Structures are given as C-alpha cells and as structure tokens.
Amino acid sequence: MMTAPPALSDDERAAILDAVREFTAAELAPHALERDEREIFPRDTLRRAGELGLGGICVREDVGGAGLARIDAAAIYEALAEGDPSLAAYISIHNMVAGIIDVYGTEEQRTQWLPRLVSLEEVSSYCLTEPGAGSDAASLSTTAVADADGYVLTGVKQFISAAGESAVYVVMARTGDATSGARGISAFLVPGDAPGLSFGPNEHKMGWRAQPTRQVMLDGVRVPASALVGEEGQGFRIAMAALDGGRLGIAACSIGGAQWAMDRTVRYVQERTAFGEALAEKQSVVFSLADMATDLHAARALVQGAARALDARADDAAVQCAMAKRFATDAGFRVANDALQLHGGYGYLREFGLEKVVRDLRVHQILEGTNEIMRVIVGRELLRRGRMAR
Ligand SMILES: Cc1cc2nc3c(=O)[nH]c(=O)nc-3n(C[C@H](O)[C@H](O)[C@H](O)COP(=O)(O)OP(=O)(O)OC[C@H]3O[C@@H](n4cnc5c(N)ncnc54)[C@H](O)[C@@H]3O)c2cc1C
Description:
Bound molecules: flavin-adenine dinucleotide
CATH topology of the largest domain: Butyryl-CoA Dehydrogenase, subunit A, domain 3
Helix content: 40-55%
Shape: globular
C-alpha cells in the first residue's frame, strides 16, 4: 500500500493557495451565474484547472499528479468553491475517480488513463448509485458476467455526474450472485465510447447546474479482463474508501461556498441601514454572524482533523470523514441560508449570487452518502467502541 505524502509547509501551502485563488478569481467566479443559468459545463475552464495540477491533486507525480496530502487538497477545494461550488465539487468527484485508478489500478491502467485525467484534458465519472440502490448501494443490481474475453456489463446507473462527457467511467457492478451483497461487487474502467454505453438526458437540478447529471445505461457493454480494478469482489471496498476522500472534498466545498456568502454578508450588514443605523449595530445580527463564523471554523477544524486521519490511515478515519461531511455540509448550508436572510429581499435576487450558493450547497447534504447515512456510520461505530477516540 502506498504511503500518503506529507502535508506541505505553511509557505508551500500559501504559494499553492495563492495560485488557486488567482484561478478562482479569474476563471471560476466571473461566469458562475451564467454557467448556472445556462447549464454550461466549461471544459476549457477545467483544462486550465488541469494546468494547475487540479485534476490529480493527491495522485502520484509519476503520471502528472500533484501528489498532495488530503489536508492540502481540502484547502484547495475550499478556495475553488469560493468561486463556484458546483464546479469545485465536480473537480472533487473527478479527483475521486483519478484517486481510485492511482491507488487501486495496475501500472497499465494508471498510464493509460491518468495523464489525460490529471491534466483535465478528459473528465471522468464515478458510477455507484442505481435507480433502485442509493443509500443501500451494496444492493446494486448492475451485473458483470465473466466470459473468455473479459466481462459483459448490464444495468443502469443513476445521477451520474459528468455522464455523457467522460472519457472513463468507474462502474461498480455485481460479479457475484444476486445474494452476494457487498462482497460480490467489483469495479471496472469503462471507456466513454464503449459500444452499448448510452446516457439519459441532463437532469434539471435545483443546483450544481454547471455540471451535467445523467443516467448511464450499460446494455451488454463488453470490457476486457484488464478493465477490472483491483480484484473481483473488492469493488465495494474500493468505492467506499474513495468516498472517504470524496466526502472531505464535498465538505470543503460547502465551507468554501459558505465562506463566500459569509464574507459578503459581513460587508453588507455594515453598509445597509434600517431604523436609522447599520444592520451591524443590531446585536441579533452580530450574534448571527458570530454563530456563522463559529460554525465554519468548527467545520474546517473537523475536515482538517479527518484529512489528517485519512492520510495517517487511522482506524477511525472513515468515521471522522463521515462526521466532517455531516457537520460541514449542514453548517455550510445553514450559513449560506442565513447569509441570504441577512440580505433581505436582495438575497433572493439571482444577481446577488447568494441564492445560487444556497441551491448548490443543498445537495451536499444528500450525495456521497446522505447525512442520515453519515449518522448511521458514526452511530454504528460509537456503539461498537463505546466512545469515540480523542
Ligand atoms: C446532483 C447529484 C449528483 C450525484 N452524483 C453521483 C455520482 O456522480 N455518482 C454516484 O454514484 N451517485 C451520485 N449521486 C447519487 C447520490 O449519491 C444519491 O442520491 C444518494 O446516495 C442518496 O441515494 P437516493 O437518492 O437513492 O436516496 P435514498 O437512498 O432513496 O434515500 C431517501 C431518504 O431516505 C434516507 N435513508 C435511507 N436509508 C436510511 C437509513 N438506513 N437510515 C436513515 N435514513 C435513511 C436518506 O437519508 C434519504 O433522506 C448524485 C446525486 C445527485 C442528486
């Protein structure tokens, strides 16, 4: 098992974050409202993100990855989300796929796919959810039947980010019998142009409108045996391990989006007057801001702690990631919504950007495991251990 890279020094991290913030200000923030309104998935912008190393943030350097630790990746997602949570979150999903290939893939799979994924020349999709298997993903019914030439995949995947655009799909499919549960699931790399692969229409969504979400249909898709990632039966474990990092990415995007809304609100309440004084003179307003800042600070601390635990391969890393995801995505949504409220009617107008952040952050409480499933993970571990480690 490869070891995690050390976290950057403060100076190194500051230099990278400066470059990411410059990119965010120049490329993500300016067109965020237009991308949302017109449902634009900006492949050129993503390629420019790739030039900064953002397509393979934790991927090893031999294939062009940036080779960074999770704690640095979290700071990067946060900075990106200050410009556009929808695109930042897609970059996080793409990194999750690149991470699967880097960690579990063969050298052949790594060199075949990673150089074009880390450069964001090509995008990728993670295919776990099905119409009949969301939270209960281990009950998935897509099959991968082995024959002399490899495997034949048949089934439907639901809510797949970047489907229809991706060069490669990591597809979790059942190689065991119908009763095999999580142990009967394997992971496959399916090229976007594979015969038998097709896509549903782009779903019309409340938020995350700068990235497409489609059904993926696999109708007898043939892949060679070399498309298997890891070993047969390891797919569910690979999918869940990848989600630990994915959940930190989504959590960090919630913090970044909420921080953007918070910063605007701190300025706004000092400019806007009501009843003869600035809103900032009212104690209830200041108390709101203080709670918002405290929640974001706590969320960031949880994400950083979980990132360290994941890099250190701590026993309770998955639980810490679940705690961080649940807390940060709830806090992020609440803070963004409170920021909207403090803007009064202006918060409800599209041009102010706050309603977009609220819409974008809402789905973070639902995907990569709903926040109820995060509670299931934490609660189960709590009952098993008796108390959480300190
Ligand atoms: C915009 C978007 C993008 C997505 N992108 C991807 C992607 O790229 N790849 C991918 O594989 N998936 C993706 N998903 C799917 C996402 O991960 C699922 O929607 C999510 O896991 C929930 O599954 P479900 O929608 O089937 O809800 P369900 O599992 O049907 O859950 C419905 C409700 O029941 C609750 N519930 C379920 N089980 C329990 C339980 N045991 N205890 C308490 N409450 C429970 C849930 O928390 C939820 O509130 C995406 C979803 C969206 C909306």
